[in-house]
Amino acid sequence: MLCLYFMxxxxxxxxxxxxxxxLLLALSVRVGKSVVFYFNNQLPKIYLxxxxxxxxxxxxxLYFFVRATLRSIxxxxxxxxxxxxxxxxxxFGVLFPYQDYPWLWGNLVYRIINFQxxxxxxxxxxxxxxxxxxxxxxxxxxxxxxxxxxxxxxxxSAIWLSYFLSKYTSYISGALTFSFGFYVSxxxxxxxxxxxxxxxxxxxxxxxxxxxxxxxxxHEKIITLFEVKKIYTTPNLTLPTLxxxxxxxxxxxxxxxxxxxxxxxxxxxxxxxxxxxxxxxKENTDLKIDAVGMECGFNSSSTFxxxxxxxxxxxxxxxxKS
Length: 322
Hints:
Elements: H1 2-9, H2 15-39, H3 45-69, H4 75-95, H5 102-127, H6 129-137, H7 144-164, H8 173-197, E1 201-202, E2 205-206, H9 212-228, H10 239-246, H11 250-261, H12 265-283, H13 289-295, H14 301-312, H15 316-321
Antiparallel strand pairs: 1-2
Helix pairs in contact: 1-2, 2-3, 3-4, 3-5, 3-7, 5-7, 7-8, 10-11, 12-13, 12-14
């Protein structure tokens, strides 16, 4: 049901939502097979093959979910990698079905699955090292996305460990771990939802200063978005939208701009837009002045003229003429 929700029914789906839905599907197939097989060990081999095949996707989907949530995913790489893995799994399953090669699936394939799954867990943990660092050093800066990443990563890791140790415990332990991790994840999000949305400001003064390392990371991300991608040319750019692109809370972005940059959000954005307008006025003399303002992200001519004169002391037309 959650897979269906994240992949199809949720409004304003993100890439992370779709990948999470696929991850839940792979986990559900794997765990579902385990439950049925535990109570019926005469299950046809095709179901065992499907369950093990789903395991090939858990690790990669976890990794791509983490990258998508942290806004560092390469969609082309993700699509082609998953498509190639699907094709390889289907071809291998057709050539070497579990029914005819039970020893192959029960030994070699099972070991490859566990090893591949573990490799992607470690890669995911490496990608989220900054999140874990915040967890121990700047817990007040933890975002909702950070909680998602940590709980999903820990949950999938626990499921892998339970299956890896099942020969010493019980085959049903993987399913029990899945259920436990599932409920803990959503309970954690439920109880933290209010805390995560609380502003860290009081009387327009911030309680905690942003440490230099985090401030440097935010600055580097802003430089990339502004000077490389020129996100400021988006007319309806707002502080919450920019915060989402930076994968930080709006309150944290506001604090960074006020404390570290010493500028308001509007002033910060308009400075970039005016500098872009000055460049266009110099290089594109045939471009109408109103069009220059629109190209730079201003919603109206009056806003453009007002911001330009405030920051340069002259009008766009006078600037171009001079």
